[in-house]
Each structure stands twice: as C-alpha cells, then as structure tokens.
Amino acid sequence: QLQLVESGGGLVQPGGSLRLSCATSGSTLEDYATGWFRQAPGKEREAVACISSSGRSTNYADSVKGRFTISRDNAKNTVYLQMNSLKPEDTAVYYCNAYQFAVYWGQGTQVTVSS
Fold this sequence. Notes:
With 115 residues, the protein is mainly beta. Helices cover 0% and strands 52% of the residues.
C-alpha cells in the first residue's frame, strides 16, 4: 500500500515562494498519477494541480495557473509543488494524493501566507 508524507509548508509573506514535497513509499510511484489538493478553513478540499504517472501531462486550477508548478521524480518517489507569487488566499492545508485503482492521501502540510 502506498504511503505519502508531505513536507515543506510554513509561514511565508505575500509574494514569496515555497516548495512542497510529497515523499512516497510502499509501492512504485511511477504506477500512479498524483495530485495536490488544498483545504482552507471552512471550505471544501479543492484540486490544485495534477500530473500523470509519466510526468508528461499536467493540469492546474485556474487560481494557481502561472504561479504553481507540479513535478515528480519517479526515481526518488517524490512529487513536488513549487509555489511562487503566493497570496493570502493560498493559505490552506495542502495534501498530496496518488491514484491508480484506489486513492491514497498524505496527512497534509500547513501553508500560511501572511505579512
């Protein structure tokens, strides 16, 4: 069974950058498509970005296009989310997931954008 652990969250000022990492274990990451989701207080979880198992195809929410970049290193079993030009509305708990025949989630990492 695939396990996922996110890291890299924290407090950053508006306009700043963070890179989130999602380390996986228990199975071969290259068999899974993966994505990043986020959930702000009082709101539903929303999709941020996703990437195909090969890494050749990506999709982004309109709210993050041009600012966030999802990538993966299958050799390192890790998925990344580079977040630039962060805004206060990006504040949320960010979750990594992976899916093939089932969906697996990490525990989340807090991102707070505030001055």
